Amino acid sequence: MPSRKYKLLIVDDSKSILHTLGRVFADTPYDVTTIDNPVKAYDKIENEHFDIVISDIMMPELDGLSLLRKIKDFNGTIQVIMITGYLTINNTINAFRYGANDIYFKPFDDMDELVKAVDAAASKLDRINEILKMLASEKKK
After folding, report:
1. Which residues of 5-19 are buried (b: 16+ CB within 10 A; e: fewer)?
2. In sequence order, what E strands does the chain have?
3. Is the distance from CB of 63 to CB of 11 less than 8 angstroms?
């Protein structure tokens, strides 16, 4: 379990996927926001604080891989998990090259796997925060 309540943003142009994932993550310790527009999602990321993002790859206006790159350029510690109905070698390689934590294929066989991926991202954030606190306390000495 994560050490604090992380904010999770789910981005997908499919309202039914957003509804399903919103329900799945409602029973988790995450503060969940869903949005169906990747351009508006990026505005939210810039103006609000999100720790973890789940993003579809194939979306109009701004595809998920471009969104991933923008997120990582904005704040490299935001953890990003990609989801797609169009899994290709290129998408997979680029997702990891651009800094995605993981990638999952829709329709989801097992929602628990996606929840575990978010838990793993939260654990990574716990570790990052632990290191930053340690460095901050070292500076004070």
Report:
1. ebebbbbbbeeebbe
2. 7-11, 31-35, 52-56, 79-84, 102-105
3. no
Query: Structural domain boundaries of the chain?
Result: 7-140
Closest C-alpha among 14, 19, 93, 117 to residue 56:
14
pTM score of the predicted model: 0.93
Query: What residues form DSSP beta bridges with 79?
Result: 52
Answer whether the bond into residue 2 is a cis peptide, omega within 30°. no
Question: What's the rounded Cα separation, in Å, for the pair 121 and 80?
Answer: 8
22 vs 56: CA distance, rounded Å: 14
Q: Which CATH class is domain 7-140?
A: alpha beta
Report mean pLDDT in 10-residue bins for the chain, 141 residues. 82 96 94 97 96 96 96 97 92 96 90 95 94 86 64
Which strands sit side by side in the sheet containing 7-11, from one edge to the other?
31-35, 7-11, 52-56, 79-84, 102-105
**Euclidean distance between CA atoms 140 and 31, whole angstroms:** 32
